[in-house]
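Quick question: what would this complex look like in 3D?
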Amino acid sequence: MEMGDFKKAFPKLAHRLGDGNCGLLATLMQERDVPTGTALVEGHTPTESLFLVIEGQFCVEVPRPDQAIEIDRIGPGQWIGEGSLFSHDHTPISRVVALSPSRVLELKHAQFWSAQTDKPDLAGALTREFIDHMSERVRVADALITRHRGGRNSPPSDPLSQV
Amino acid sequence: MLLKNFLKSQSLFTDLSDRDLDALAHAMEIREYPDGGAIIQEGRTGKELYLLLEGQVKVAQYNAETGLLEQINLVKPGEIFGMLSLIDHLPTSASCIASGPVKIGVLQHNAYDLLSQASAPIALGFQLATAKQLSALLRHQEEILKSVAPHP
């Protein structure tokens, strides 16, 4: 993808990266079409890439023998698979499936880890981006867990007094 | 036990050089809590990042229906906790309570902010450690969801 198109598609990320890193990342990532129903990330299967959504929508679900549990939806400007990048076995638990014809940019794990030494500014900016994204996902999952447990009102001013 | 040696032995910090581990160890204060001691209180804004050195820490959430704290996770030595509120500046989502006597390395939020925003090698190594811990937390949550979500 050309840097101009990259900046238009991902203004927030482009701002965070700055022009130099933005150009580098745009050249590293490969564009991919993803037909509806394709699992971009399969639960419990090692993966070698992470993805940035250009267009389309994806469902994040945790597989279970009886029925998968939907935990989030991912759309343009959001990352897919960054959790596996930092896990010891690069194996995701969740499955990510395209809900519509979609386009993504693919970044190989190996490219990210090479950037740690070759392009540390880019690697650092990306790591901070992934930290923010994962922290949002933790909050979403936390809210879902709370809902399934029967909801939760605000804790009392001193919840530890309830111990 | 030297804090630097502890950091060096943990997989989370493999991306930090010897010198960076020294600097991180110096930036941390060591604190001890007795059994039941409250390290983080749910609903408050986080001000510190914690690295568990010895013992175990229960992570628990208040349940309005039962009026009790329910344990949702157990932090083990070498794991960092308390980072979520420092990242998004929202209230903490759970309480963290010492399960038996514990020893903890504490990083103040201003030091955390410096490390989480800068691009110096020590900051990069620290950010990778944070990312690895968040990834582990996400996996743990997904496992919990498998068991708490209703079956059809």
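Answer marked as accepted. Chain A touches chain B through 52 residues (CB under 8 Å).
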